[in-house]
Amino acid sequence: MVRVIQISDTHLSPSKQHFDANWAPLARWIAQHKPDLVIHTGDVTVDAADQETDAAYCATQLASLGVPVVAVPGNHDVGEVGNPHQPVNGERLDRFRRHFGDDRWLRDVDGWRLIGLNSMIFGGGPEEAQQTEWLEAAMADAAGRRLAWFTHRPLFIELPTEADTGYWSVKPEPRRALLDLLQRYQVEIVASGHLHRWHEIRLNGTHYIWGPAAGFLVGAKLAPPMGGAARLGAVVYDIDGENIDVSIRPVPGLTDYWIDDVLHEVYPPRDAEA
Questions:
Q1: What is the mean pLDDT of residues 107-128?
Q2: Cβ–Cβ contacts within 10 Å for residue 120, how many?
Q3: Is 274 a residue whose pLDDT tops 60?
Q4: Spatial distance between the Cα atoms of 167 and 44, rounded to a whole number of angstroms
Q5: In this structure, are residues 41 and 193 in contact, taking their beta carbons and an 8 Å threshold?
Q6: Pairing status of strand 206-210 against strand 199-203
Q7: Rounded to the nearest 5°, which phi and psi values hold at 149?
Q8: Do 194 and 152 form a contact (C-beta atoms < 8 A)?
Q9: Are 101 and 70 in contact (CB under 8 A)?
Q10: Which of 11, 145, 202, 268 has its CB surrounded by the most CB atoms within 10 Å?
Q11: pLDDT-derived band at 41, boundaries 50, 70, 90
Q12: Is 137 left (phi over 0), alpha (psi -120 to 50) or beta?
């Protein structure tokens, strides 16, 4: 049995420590569950997109877990395509890679190939084309292993055919290309973060998992209506050969901080997305 734990949206910083108290209980819980691998699905930091100190601090925190950790970037880690204040670019991606390792990766675990994708580059630029080429090759040579993707931003909120949801999910054009690859290679799990919600659905043979945040929750006034529940936690994947057991779990000791209460302190109006 191999155990993988997915954590997400910790939003840690040495200068803005609004959610820092949730790190110790999360780290303690991870140690108790003895994972072979931890996957962080993005927004590790409050603002590594602009703050080198945030990246360095959070990299140290992840290393302190004492187990192998891989991460994919969130919008607050590297910016995003089309953001007027923090566009994803070479400088921001280089900062992430220096501190957290590759922004795309694969790990073979028993009968599974786990693939981490940088969803912040979906929809623009040469980095996206390179990642797509890499992704297709990674799936084509999986040697019969079952496939799981890990991203920050979910592919969709309600339906694969939905219109643009703005900040909340992948734009329709890159989504269509990703869904084509997903169907062609029969990807069985797509796990994401970003929404600060606890939810899972099964659709057309794929299990979509919204990994809950560990840092804070987002109130109804700041987010559109969507499925699932505003709960903090983590996801445990127990892998035994080709079999996998997936469970979203609460983490004892986490405090239900709400970004609504401190939004303009943590993310001033220039880039106030949660």
A1: 95
A2: 32
A3: no
A4: 18
A5: yes
A6: antiparallel
A7: -105, 145
A8: yes
A9: yes
A10: 11
A11: very high
A12: alpha
Residue in the block written with tokens 């079952």? 146
Which residues lie closer than 8 Å to 211 by C-beta, 6 or more apart?
A: 6, 7, 8, 41, 191, 192, 193, 234, 235, 248
Model confidence over 195-207: pLDDT tens digits? Answer: 999 999 999 999 9
pLDDT in tens, 206-265: 999 999 999 999 999 999 999 999 999 999 999 999 999 999 999 999 999 999 999 999
In whole angstroms, give the CA distance from residue 140 to residue 142: 6
Structure tokens that stand for 105 in this block: 């990766």
- Report pTM: 0.97
Residues 6+ apart with CB under 8 A from 77: 42, 43, 44, 45, 48, 49, 55, 92, 96, 100, 120
Kindly report the backbone phi and psi dihedral angles of residue 265, in degrees, each rounded to the nearest multiple of 5, phi listed first: -80, -45
Q: What residue type is 128 in one-letter code?
A: E
**Under 8 Å between Cβ of 43 and 194:** yes
Closest CA to 104 of 90, 114, 91: 114
Helix (H, G, I), strand (E, B) or coil at 200: strand
Side-chain half-sphere exposure of 66, counting CA atoms within 13 A: 8
Supply the DSSP string of 127-179, one letter for each residue.
HHHHHHHHHHHHHHTSTT-EEEEE-SS-S-SS-TT----GGGS--HHHHHHHH
What is the residue-averaged pLDDT of the chain? 96
C-alpha 176/C-alpha 55 separation (Å) is 32
The span from the CA of 117 to the CA of 95, in Å, is: 17
